[in-house]
Amino acid sequence: MTDKLHPVMLAGTGSDVGKSVLATxxxxxxxxxxxxxxxxxxxxxxxxxxxxxxxxxxxRAQAVQAEAAGVPCHxxxxxxxxxxxxxxxxxxxxxxKPIGNRDAYDYxxxxxxxxxxxxxxxxxxxxxxxxxxxxxxxxxxxxxxxLRNSDLVNVPMAMHAGADIILVGDIDRGGVFASVYGxxxxxxxxxxxxxxxxxxxxxxxxxxxxxxxxxxxEELCGIPVLGVVPYFNDIHIEEEDSVALAAKSxxxxxxxVNIAVVLLRHISNFTDFDSLERDPRVHLFYTNNxxxxxxxxxxxxxxxxxxxxxxxxxxxxxxxxxxxxxRREGATILGICGGYQMMGxxxxxxxxxxxxxxxxxxxxxxxxxxxxxxxxxTRQVRFTAAEGTGETMEGYEIHMGSTTPAEGxxxxxxxxxxxxxxxxxIVDGKCMGTYIHGILDNPAFIDTLLAPHSxxxxxxxxxxxxxxxxxxxxDKLADxxxxxxxxxxxxxxLKGKR
Length: 498
Known about the structure:
Elements: E1 8-12, H1 19-32, E2 38-40, E3 43-45, E4 49-51, E5 57-59, H2 60-69, E6 80-84, E7 89-94, E8 97-103, H3 104-108, H4 113-128, E9 134-137, H5 155-161, E10 164-170, H6 176-185, H7 189-192, E11 195-203, H8 211-221, E12 225-230, E13 257-262, E14 267-268, H9 274-278, E15 282-287, H10 290-293, E16 298-301, E17 303-304, H11 307-316, H12 319-328, E18 332-336, H13 338-342, E19 346-348, E20 359-361, E21 368-385, E22 393-405, E23 415-417, E24 422-423, E25 425-428, E26 431-434, H14 443-450, H15 466-484, H16 487-494
Parallel strand pairs: 1-9, 1-10, 2-9, 3-6, 10-11, 11-12, 13-15, 13-16, 16-18, 18-26, 19-21
Antiparallel strand pairs: 4-5, 6-7, 7-8, 14-17, 19-20, 21-22, 21-23, 23-24, 25-26
Helix pairs in contact: 1-2, 1-15, 6-8
């Protein structure tokens, strides 16, 4: 019988300090130590989302954390998801279902916030009744004092849960003393008492050089420093932020299949490509540069939060013409979700789901027409390749459109769903589209995708097992954090002994 632990919240001195990855580590550590942990983030803002087993939508980061915790993901782990549609508006997803688009100013006003607060508190309470401990994640900075009255995700959430807050500071970006001390001091006295520890993240160099700094922080804040976690680049956990995508080199590599993911302005669910990034047979890069697209053996059009807008931009910047030229010259073209829609003859939006454009010609690579619909499809799926009786594969759908054969044409489906439905479209082994996110996590599909380019592969290249790889990475992450964080002290805090 394991002890009942307090919930723990990893809150940050700012965005991108490593809260999500550290929460993932704690989920795996608690699982290894015999507990039944589950992740929770009251409000997440991301274009990377995931479909739960019951066909609802949550942020991808919480799905990753649930995987590390060894439990099925659920909307209670992320009851409020904001999916940005522009610099000022977001689609609001509550308990897994879209409830409309909101302007940022209207969303953060106090009117209507109590209904959302009640919803996220209720989700947390349901989760806490089933799991021990809850590993909570804050958002942005712990001390967004201008949003204090409307905050749903940081200190008020921790206070509702009775959580012990661990404040995470990023030393790699500089200013860690000011950011940690300032975050603590900007809290009200009754809020400050919930902060039970400090974690310094992304340290580079000799840890002994920070021993004095550690003591100084503890004296300044009156809070123990639980650990100084070194920066790592040899452990691979799915990222929530797309900022680093364009930095991946487009230089073609010999002995590998070179795959270009088209870098869209509104790219979503780019974690679809994590498995390819790790596959030793593949060199993957992200680009919308015409010359770089020409270097690719395979071009993938990814998902988009604004399909019509991104299609227009592809035509404007010349990438659309480069994709068509690559197809003529023997490259494989694969579209996923929004990318699948773009590959057809036309996209129609008569109900203005995405905006004012009612129709736009597609790339003409597939004999399909897509109509945008107000009702979002979210579901996990099991399927096989439509041709043959291959192994069963898994993925998920999140989209707001229906794709059908263009007038006067028919098409061959790419996949056959478990319930017998046809899915996707294939013209030949080098031109195809699908609505299924996560299709590239299936070794059987990757083998099919790479097959026409097998002559490029170095001798002895083998199939890659992404599921086994991810499990290994969660364990490596847990080992790394255990090495540098005072886990006995953290357990004392979560047992109420400190």
